[in-house]
Specification:
With 218 residues, the chain is of the alpha/beta class. It has one domain: Rossmann fold (3-Layer(aba) Sandwich), CATH 3.40.50.850. It contains 9 helices and 6 strands, in the order αβαααβαβαβαβαβα. The protein has a 6-stranded parallel beta sheet with strand order 3-2-1-4-5-6, sandwiched between helices. Helix 4 packs parallel to helix 9 and helix 7 runs parallel beside helix 8. The radius of gyration is 16 Å and the shape is globular.
């Protein structure tokens, strides 16, 4: 688990803390908890990501019980014109042993990890860019607006890439942001804490799993 280090001065400078929420208008966003990002035999595997699964499951159970929404995002590679990457971006997408993209739908690497506890009322949304809120990335915004969601709880991996990108754009789309410090995972503590610092000072509240569950219950 990451060693969390958020300076006191950063908390004192917090611009947009979330001090309460309506569970019925809140969504837990679980980002890219897929086999490709969790298993060490893949080139993009992140050992820290497996450690946050119990916390994500606790958050999901708590929010479901309170009437909120749980959304699982899956990072995806596609040749469909709306979603296709540019050639130079394609070169950075991880490949399987046969030279195909790891994150194509239908591949084991693309699947959500079986360790996540899911419910029939949850949503699964394919995401084609680091941020889920870009128009060429996903229809997440439409899903959330249809449910009247105004607050997002951000979890998943990788902290400083897809989680941060989605949180930043979600804030700019008008959502209140809770970024869960021990239910997000990066490759190093330095990268993880850099994102937590940015989230704290400007984009929302950085809370741990227990604090977030208390907020849901409150």
């Amino acid at each position: 688990m990451h060693q969390i280090d958020i300076p006191d001065w950063a908390r004192a400078r917090a611009r947009n803390p979330v001090d309460g929420l309506d569970p019925g208008r809140t969504a837990l966003i679980v980002i890219d908890m897929q086999n490709a990002f969790l298993l060490p035999d893949y080139p993009v595997g992140n050992p820290a990501a497996a450690e946050i699964i119990p916390g994500i499951n606790r958050l999901a159970a708590s929010l479901r019980a309170a009437g909120g929404l749980v959304v699982f995002l899956q990072h995806t590679i596609s040749d469909e014109p709306r979603f296709a990457l540019t050639p130079w971006q394609q070169r950075t997408s991880p490949l399987d042993a046969q030279g195909g993209y790891l994150l194509e739908p239908g591949k084991f690497a693309h699947n959500l990890t079986a360790a996540l506890e899911r419910d029939a009322g949850d949503y699964v949304v394919l995401k084609y860019r680091f941020s889920a809120f870009l128009p060429n990335s996903s229809d997440l915004h439409d899903v959330l607006q249809a449910r009247g969601i105004d607050t997002l709880i951000i979890t998943g991996t990788v902290t400083n890439i897809c989680c941060e990108s989605t949180a930043r754009d979600g804030y700019m789309m008008g959502y209140r942001i809770i970024f869960v410090s021990d239910a997000t995972a990066a490759l190093t503590d330095v990268e993880h804490n850099a994102t937590l610092l940015t989230m704290t000072t400007m984009f929302g509240s950085v809370l741990n799993v227990d604090e977030t569950i208390d907020l849901i219950a409150g």
